[in-house]
Amino acid sequence: MKNTRITLKDLAKDLNLSASTISRALGNHPAISASTKKRVQKKAEELGFVPNSIASSFRKKRTQTIGVIVPRIDIHFHSLVISGIEEFAYNNGYNVTIFQSKDLLKREKEIAKTLQNKMLDGVIVCLGIETKSCDHFKKINKLGIPLVFYDRVPTDFDANKIVINDFESAYLATEHLIKNGCKQIGHISGSQTTNIFKARLEGYKAALKKYNLPIEESLILFTNSLSYEEGVQCAETYLKSSLKPDGIFCANDYTAVSVIQVFRKAEIKIPEDVAIVGFSNYPISKIIEPHLTTINDRAFQMGEAATKLLIRQIEEKDDSITSETITLKTELIIRESSTRS
Amino acid sequence: MKNTRITLKDLAKDLNLSASTISRALGNHPAISASTKKRVQKKAEELGFVPNSIASSFRKKRTQTIGVIVPRIDIHFHSLVISGIEEFAYNNGYNVTIFQSKDLLKREKEIAKTLQNKMLDGVIVCLGIETKSCDHFKKINKLGIPLVFYDRVPTDFDANKIVINDFESAYLATEHLIKNGCKQIGHISGSQTTNIFKARLEGYKAALKKYNLPIEESLILFTNSLSYEEGVQCAETYLKSSLKPDGIFCANDYTAVSVIQVFRKAEIKIPEDVAIVGFSNYPISKIIEPHLTTINDRAFQMGEAATKLLIRQIEEKDDSITSETITLKTELIIRESSTRS
DNA sequence: CTGAAAGCGCTTACAG
DNA sequence: CTGAAAGCGCTTACAG
Questions:
Q1: Which residues 160-179 of B interface with strand D at a CB distance below 7 A?
Q2: pLDDT tens digits for range B140-170
Q3: What topology is assigned to B8-51 in CATH?
Q4: Which residues of A61-99 are buried (b: 16+ CB within 10 A; e: fewer)?
Q5: CATH of A166-296+332-338, one of 3.10.450.540, 3.40.50.150, 3.40.50.2300, 3.30.1380.10
Q6: Nearest nt (C1') from A9 Cα
Q7: How far apart are CA B281 and CA B295, in angstroms?
Q8: Straight-line distance from CA A22 to C1' C1, in Å?
Q9: A34 against A179, higher pLDDT
């Protein structure tokens, strides 16, 4: 049963043709006559010929495979991005091989190293949380393998990047709260070593400034990972604080949800007493009551855009790899948690 | 810059050794002297030698790569399974290539076909919702490629399967409701063309029988995809119905959450008036109020178990591929939505 | 302990 | 329109 895969040679012998002709016929080469092509295709079908794409990859030095490094697959944002990557890749004849760094720098480095063996046609990366420098990716570039980063992108490194405009998104979210009558707006922020959270904080501050509202440092709370649990703690901090917010822009949806729940338990009305905006448009934002106003962070599109850019670079004839940064437009999704009539 | 990858031959020339020796030294072959190994490794490092694993795969007819076909990556259950697969594979030196069938039979067939080219060492599959027959996977078996199904597994086909005990889990969930004093227990079920939902329905019925409770057909509601929206409809159906449940076992967490929300809006107390149990332990189950009692469906472990079984079959010397079915133990996670003191 | 040789299954430049 | 030949970069059975 096993090892009975037939090869071009077998087909050639069977048809009294050369392997070259078989190869070309199956590859739909223009120089081959239609009748030969038909004969070859028929026989291939008949014998159950399965081309060995490893042999082909080896010969052509093209694997038609894209490597993807994500912190974790089971984080909804990343699974959406991967879905976008897979979809675009599939439609363009590429496969996708997945690696999880688990947010561990050590593991990210290991992966970056083994990736070089794999003869991948290109690589898409979202950096892990521990990663400060990107030296371990420079080698991939040196080997001429196109590389695209998304979301958490390097700063020490002139590379292809797909990002959203975190600053502007945060600005719009905060402005929306202001326009709904909030005067004392708080912010729950993520780790300041991560650029996107820095940018969201800055966008929030910029909106306050623009509308001549004071920036109250006591209303700005920092978390490590924007977890649900940390959100609960932040909410309790607000409750105990002397200066109370009448609106809160949260840097993700989990913390926004936890604030809503803690506040409601404390008989604070959302959005009447406090209006809430989250970030990312997680599924839960449409389920929590009141439904959460949030930012659509275009995860799926990010995957598509990364893959599109990557494939373009793979297939471009000239070797001059240029770096591009694509900023996707986000969208403020207005729901009940922030809407005061 | 590009195409400057050095090969074994280059190293050999540089060191005045044969390519065979270089290959063996790098592969840590026992016949090579320690001093030679050191020399080779040092030089390899020095010249930045990156082995071409495609050439190696081609030669060895082993790609160290596992293919995974899932309906969708962005469904939390599957992303958890994939995470388990990737983790186990990574720790055992295998890569993971992902394909999404999008629950489309046509696409699943396409993927199954192209998979055969890829010389994958093994394949893990969760069938799409449209799939009734598995003929398109039989060829993979015939080629001697080990194959493991998980969750949605074939019935027309003697294959390796990783499943949970849906019947027993449903039985336990229902029994739990009974023990919490429920007398009229409803069930929200999924598509009856899918075995796991059939089994959950049967487990629910079996528990009722066991405890001499009547099976009221009007309390059993069917949905297509157990979506949140369908859950809302089911909840409304219950509200309008003459026979009202005092407990509901939902075949997933989304419908359970929607029922909780609709009922609470209708001033029905959870769990006092109606106790609710879900299925899958989605993140939302810990967030919804009251927290949802549910079944931990062991998604991550399913991925690990599938990969473990697959790799065992890949690495087993003898060709006699046997079929194994592994049933993972689930766990009833008791939270507030069902707990009457 | 090391080397020469063959070959994995394709593709493609060259020749006709 | 078709074929002969070379070769991609490894690995491994065989020989010494």
A1: none
A2: 888 889 999 999 999 888 889 999 999 999 9
A3: 434 Repressor (Amino-terminal Domain) (1.10.260)
A4: eebbbbbbbbbbbbbbbbbbbbbbbbbbbbeeebbbbbb
A5: 3.40.50.2300
A6: C9
A7: 6
A8: 44
A9: A179
